Amino acid sequence: MSLKPALMLLLFAVAATGCAVEPWVKPYERDRLADPIMLLDRDPVSAAYINHVHEAREGARGAAGSAGGGCGCN
Fold first, then answer.
1. d(Cα 70, Cα 51) in Å, to the nearest integer?
2. Closest to 72 (Cα-Cα) out of 62, 64, 54, 61
3. Contact present, 59 and 66 (Cβ < 8 Å)
4. Based on the structure, what is the number of domains in the chain?
């Protein structure tokens, strides 16, 4: 066996083992990801209100994909 096919086989074996790694989050690690510092918005209450107002205004056009009219009724 020459050096080039052996090297290719070794590189393929190393690349194939990279697929076996499980990058999934374990259940006991999820509390670290739920940290408030990981949130996209600084104030989730204010963001929920703004999102509600935006859905009420744009509901007739379907901007955010929500159902209903643009009257703001619940």
1. 13
2. 54
3. yes
4. 1
pLDDT in tens, the chain (74 residues): 577 888 999 888 888 776 666 667 788 887 777 777 777 788 888 988 988 888 777 765 555 555 555 565 65
Q: Would you say residue 7 lies in a domain?
A: no
Half-sphere exposure of 62 (CA within 13 A, CB side): 2
* Residue 16 placed within a domain: no
Residue 30 counted as domain residue: yes
Residue 4 counted as domain residue: no
Whether 48 and 39 have beta carbons less than 8 Å apart is answered as no
C-alpha dihedral, 39 to 43 to 48 to 50, nearest 10°:
-120
Domain that holds residue 32: 24-61
What is the value of pTM for the model shown?
0.34
